[in-house]
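Q: Give me the 3D complex with NDP.
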Amino acid sequence: MIHVENLIGGKFVSLDEKFEDTSPSDFSVIATIPRTKQVNDAVLAAKAALHDWSSLGIEQRCDWLDKIANELENEIQEVARLEALDTGKPMDVALNVDAKRSVNNFRFFAEFGRNLQEQKFEMSDATNYVIRKPIGVVGLISPWNLPLYLLSWKIAPALLMGNTIIAKPSEITPLTAHFLGRICTKIGLPDGVLNIVNGYGPEVGQAIVEHPEIKAISFTGGTSTGKIVAATAAPMFKKLSLELGGKNASIILDDADLEIAVPGVLRASFLNSGQICLCGSRVLVHASIYDDFMNRYLAELKDFKIGPVISEEHRQKVLSYIRLAIEEGGEILAGGNVPEKPGAWIEPTVISGLSHTSRTATEEIFGPVVTIHKFDTDEEAIEMANCTQYGLAGSVWSKNRGPHVAEKIESGMVWVNTWLHRDLRVPFGGVKDSGVGREGGLWSVGFFSEAVNICVMED
Ligand code: NDP
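A: Here is the predicted complex, encoded as structure tokens.
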């Protein structure tokens, strides 16, 4: 049994009121979590640490990011073990997707920081210098699907730019954030630079968003929660980054190479049990290759191993969409059942025969459920891909026309003949109801700093 504690001002603090963290694999209790309701202590600690941390040179902060990366890497098996325990995902996914990327997030921003160029704009009679100042105390709120991967994606650039942090992991998956806190205290990261508070989203998460001394909020989570966060933060003029839900399309054109498209689309459908905001939960297939594609896709699905979904509550939500799909006239081509064992398991499920405008095909399910749709022309595929309220990501599979179609998809990121192939320098984020703002490389640096222009008149 792990006892998760808050990290405030370099000290681990427990609270009398706690709740339980259960394993999605078998519903056993694995940890206790403090039910935090206010964040004043954490904000005071973060404010006290701000001057010294922001006064360090960027090189020194890069060194700290490298130290965190090194220590995390030394403990990478433990990071993966904790992530697998907390989320139920297979160990190879926890290691190769979650743990490795968490290390890379720190290492990437350390290197990126060392190579940041000064921005200078010459006029005929003056020179403009743009400097980047820290914002101050920032609030970072992350979801349960890729717990440390997504939280470290925010922590690393926030630290790089000289801010101090109040971080809140999801109440469902607090273990790796807690472990990161242990690592940071072990390596001597100055007290109060990284504070981690745990508890329920509408309590401690809301307290972070509402706190007047927290000047920026970087939030990743569902669109409906994002609306509450935006409504709370906007009147206080906080800087706000919102990475929200998705309902992404994988589009297989008639000239696709099925040798790469089938495994690629399958991975996009079901990696992490479909619980990645970038997953392709709508598969659009050209009519001329439909039978060939589907035969191979369903055959390869038999060998695709997934973990449970995150909780019983989430399983019930996913199952309600499978029932809805049947009501809407869908045909279950694979899965649809609940395996007879403890834990929040659901078979990977493939549904055809639904309108692309049906609720099942347009609402975010965030589980191992995919709908399949047939199209006849590129224009029809584009229209189908763009018909949801979301606009996060997508993929196009084609030998010749991939980029042409990709440019017409209304989303922040589109892959061609691949999926989840990430260069951490590029912008990451969504359009429409999938979010506001971008993260990654210069976009993260821009979000976690205030750009100040100094215009110097020449003599
Ligand atoms: P939620 O929106 O339920 O929660 C996200 C985070 O917000 C959690 O830490 C949660 O805490 C917290 N929270 C809940 N209520 C509030 C509140 N009122 N104020 C402040 N914080 C609050 O999302 P899920 O955790 O269910 O994650 C799944 C969602 O995340 C999906 O919609 C998915 O698409 C999206 N997502 C988006 C990504 C992107 O980059 N665009 C990446 C990954 C996921 P608690 O868990 O304790 O309730």
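A quick observation: Residues 141-145, 150, 168, 170-172, 200-202, 205-206, 209, 220-222, 225, 228-229, 243-246, 277, 364, 366, 392, 430, 435 surround NDP (CB under 6 Å).
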